[in-house]
Design brief:
The complex is a heterodimer of chains A (about 110) and B (about 120).
Chain A lengths: L8 E4 L5 E6 L10 E6 L6 E4 L13 E6 L2 E6 L8 E9 L4 E4 L3 E5 L1
Parallel strand pairs in A: 1-9
Antiparallel strand pairs in A: 2-6, 3-4, 3-7, 5-6, 7-8, 7-9
Chain B lengths: L2 E5 L2 E3 L5 E8 L8 E6 L5 E7 L6 E3 L7 E6 L4 E6 L8 E8 L6 E5 L3 E5 L2
Classes of the chains: A mainly beta (about 110), B mainly beta (about 120).
């Protein structure tokens, strides 16, 4: 049971816009920035979004993040086949004194 | 180029010990906080431990507290994870992950991971 809650799966067709939600609590998302990671099959995770809505250099602007209260979301527009991956959200938890992750969302491009 | 290279994983019996290492290069090691994150086969990411720049502040997940010890050697640009009293549920790929300078962008760089299998 993960501290942050994500839907286990999401899907879309090429060119579509999809969103992935991440729900937490006051001690994590409600108090601290949210990060999003993309993990392609057989590879290490890659930071996709940091501080709720910032993209590291090299990440396409098709990827965007937002946060409201104790929830956050990742949006992917202009969906491409290479976006098929697992996506995770994470935040620091002030009560647990540690980083907490969502359970991950497997994105399928139909 | 920032690089994190883990090593030290392997097969160990329940109750045994392993010491993981993470060799860093391409950045000022002492200026960054670091973490260990693991991923059990077919499962999601699980944070394991966090260490501050100087090593003076350390946190552990409840699942490993009292059994794992994180440390760093800033002179040798290395991060370590001493794992004792290993259990089957510790079987996972263990990643070291850097925290960005803002202290919140955890995992701005990751290693490739080192596999740990706990089995008799």
């Amino acid at each position: 049971q993960s501290v942050l809650t994500q839907p286990p799966s999401a899907s879309g067709t090429p060119g579509q816009r999809v969103t992935i939600s991440c729900s937490g609590s006051n001690s994590n998302i409600g108090s601290n920035p949210v990060n999003w990671y993309q993990q392609l099959p057989g590879t290490a995770p890659k930071l996709l979004i940091y501080s709720n809505n910032q993209r590291p250099s090299g990440v396409p602007d098709r990827f965007s993040g937002s946060k409201s209260g104790t929830s956050a979301s990742l949006a992917i527009s202009g969906l491409q086949s290479e976006d098929e991956a697992d996506y995770y959200c994470a935040a620091w938890d002030d009560s647990l004194k540690g980083w907490v992750f969502g359970g991950g969302t497997k994105l399928t491009v139909l | 180029e920032v690089q994190l290279v883990e090593s030290g994983g392997g097969l160990v019996q329940p109750g045994g010990s392993l010491r993981l290492s993470c060799a860093a290069s391409g950045f000022t090691f002492s200026s960054y906080e670091l973490n260990w994150v693991r991923q059990a086969p077919g499962k999601g990411l699980e944070w394991v431990s966090h260490i501050s720049r100087s090593g003076s502040t350390i946190y552990y997940a409840d699942s490993v507290k009292g059994r794992f010890t994180i440390s760093r050697d800033n002179a040798k640009n290395s991060l370590f994870l001493q794992m004792d009293s290993l259990r089957a549920e510790d079987t996972a790929l263990y990643y070291c992950a850097r925290v960005g300078r803002d202290d919140y962008s955890m995992g701005d760089y990751w290693g490739q991971g080192t596999p740990v299998t706990v089995s008799s």
